[in-house]
Amino acid sequence: EKRIYDLGEGGMHLVHLLGGKGAGLAEMRRMGLPVPAGFTITTAECTRYLKHGRLDEGLVNEVREAMGRLEAATGKSFGRGPRPLLVSVRSGAPVSMPGMMDTVLNVGLNEETMEAMVALTGDRRFALDSMRRLMQMFGTTVLGIPKEEFDRATLRVARNNGPGSADMMDLDTLDGLVREFGEVYRNHGLEFPQDPYRQLFMSIEAVFRSWNSDRARAYREINGIDDGMGTAVNVVEMVFGNMGEDSATGVVFTRDPNTGEKRLSGEYLVNAQGEDVVAGIRTPENVYGMERRMPGAFRDLVEACDRLERHYRDMMDIEFTVERGRLYLLQTRVGKRAPRAHLRITLDMLKEGLISVEEAVMRVEPEHIEGIMHPRVEDGQDGSVICSGLAASPGVATGEIVFSSDRAIELSKQGRRLILVRPETTADDVRGMAASAGFLTQKGGMTSHAAVVARAMGKPAVVGAEEIEVDHIGGVLRARGLTLREGDVVTVDGTTGRAYIGEVRVTEVAERDDIDEFLRVCDSVSRLQVWANANTPEEVALAKRNGAKGIGLARTERMFLGNDRIGVVRAMIMSRDSEERRSYLDRLLPMQVSDFTEFFRTMEGMPVIIRLLDPPLHEFLPEKEEILERLSGPADGESAAELKKMLETVRDLEEFNPMLGFRGCRLGIIHREIYEMQVRAIARAALRVRSEGIEPNVEIMVPLVGHENEMKELREIIMKTFSSEDPEGRIRYKIGTMIEVPRACLVADRIAEFADFFSFGTNDLTQMTFGYSRDDAEGKFIRQYIERGILRHDPFTSIDLDGVGRLMKIGVELGRKTKRDLEIGICGEHGGDPESIEFCHTIGLDYVSASPRRIPVARLAAARAAI
Ligand code: ADP
Ligand code: MG
Ligand code: MG
Known about the structure:
It is a single chain. α12 (339-351) crosses α18 (513-525), α14 packs antiparallel against α34 (855-866) and α26 (672-691) crosses α27 (708-725). This protein has 34 helices and 33 strands. By secondary structure, it is α/β, with parallel strands linked by helices. Adenosine-5'-diphosphate binds next to β5, β6, β7, β11 and β12.
């Protein structure tokens, strides 16, 4: 098999072998974009290397041959003047793992080639700068010398000779630094290798090994990436951004990764190399600054961005270098972005004709929609601001300050919410970032490590807040006169770039235009409708605002719990006979009429399914213990006789197994006056709304039917009561049932004779199919069942396809055998779960009914199911 591909031979289709970086470079070269020459060693060689622990002969020879081709292609020679070839040796896995693995730049530089570079460029400063970079990168990544030793050496040299960082040093100092770096090697009993091929092969091995570094493993674990893939190695001709004022290095996104706005977003550093931008060493300039400083390169960059977007049909993240005014592209990949930017970009690309409706829908995941519904800090709390930095990743997080990733990991295990505060973050902080809720850094720009990782994790971040001072060793954050320590609570708002002391008031997002627009696109492809479970007029309004096409479940009992009603409800329950009961029901009637009127009004003709009373009556009474306690010292206005009567009723109603007890239609049949009152209220509300000019779409639903005769009897009661209110039959309504008892699925054909619609109550259906009590099972054993692999997931979250799903399928088939057009939906919690929604689509349901907040996600899931 082929072990090495010259850049341009491969392309994105070989990403598993070439890695993302190699495939992207190949693709760009094939497009004729300015990419330096080079070659890629495949990921298969990484696996082979890690297995044997050494490079095999065959590969070594092939690398030498590839270097020969590279020399020919560039007209340069590796290890010799007059035009020395220098290369970068770069990692690059099939799945993006930004900054997790190693790269060595300027390989091929030694005493001899350095002099040749001086002769060639006339720039000794540049040559020395490249040399000290190689010595440092090689020393740390290949030989494992601690980075601090190079940092300390740099400080030492600088202290004796003026300015502090290497990029500001004069010639002699730089020369001294290179010699000092040689000392660092010698202190470890090592020598910087002068042989360029030794440099090359050692670097290749180091890149292979970096696949298994702690931080790379951690990243893979957190992101669920397969450990077996391995990294490719890219050997690329060096181009130099550190050749003076007309040279630079930078990173650019083709659109704004935070807002999605269609403009370049990026940063560059003049006279710099490689990772200086990402590492946040100097604060970079906005990429638009290039327009004035290096107009030719800028024009080429804009054009390259445009071509890459059209080629990949996505927002791209691009690394580039300008060498003496000439642009080179060094990497491209699909850019990471905040959820709200993702939505904006998807919508824009749809309008630009770059992607189809189906692609647009499939590009957006439920997590994106959830991520956009970020809260924001309410206005008027400026007094609590402790600093202002770059708004690097949107959202608000409050937590206790921690200064190190290790502490974050430790404290998060105690369930604490944390804000990681650092001078800047590095790849070593990924675990700590995963353990924190938000981030605040002193240094770095919009493409700094902290910013990129935060966006990928969907967590709020404020970076580059230069006004603060982070002493992470001493554990102190100084900001606007405050001194904060570990455990102090702060809030970061990554949408505005501010941080606050303590907790602050937040509001839900108001910016909904993009979501609404996108969800309309979704609706245009879905077959399954999304309805809402809503129990109060407020919830109905929210459901409608979120785009519900109907109310799939209005639970009337929730209305019984209101402060003004519970007393009447209790009196009704404690009634001695049905006559007394009716008198209290008469008092409840007008309250229910006004609830239902509000429902029908808000939904303006969309279907509203009202479920008749479902829970066992004892749920409306206080606990036995509570009554006993109150009996020992009745409060003002409370009579002991009343309390005793209540206690008696509670004892009467007591059941061993209330969920399988006297509830639902069983209650409706035995105490028919309750359902009669509710039907009366529905009819009156419908007539009232109709007289206002809205034709209500009424559906009355009976809970817990398991036998067709239950449905038969209740259908008669409902029809009789309704027509007593509406003798002329002005209101058209449906009578249907919940399908939530397993038996109902099995005799659905008979039930359908008396039902106009079905609605699967998957909560009860799951409970009764498994025989798991929902309120007890979750905490007691379901989690352990999942850990042990007995259950794949929690069946109360996502429909159990094999059992509950099978019953549903039977129910649908039998029901529609009797009535071909039977309307069928689902109204359990599962109605908001994307996997369950897909299943509902497959078995041909008409709608899913979800809680109002889940509706946006459900609309997306319904559309994705249809594609
Ligand atoms: P990472 O995966 O960490 O981004 P890269 O392999 O992309 O690592 O390289 C790190 C930095 O070095 C990047 O800024 C990149 O643009 C720069 N770089 C890599 N190869 C070259 C090269 N041949 N010439 C100039 N700069 C390079
Ligand atoms: Mg890179
Ligand atoms: Mg139920």
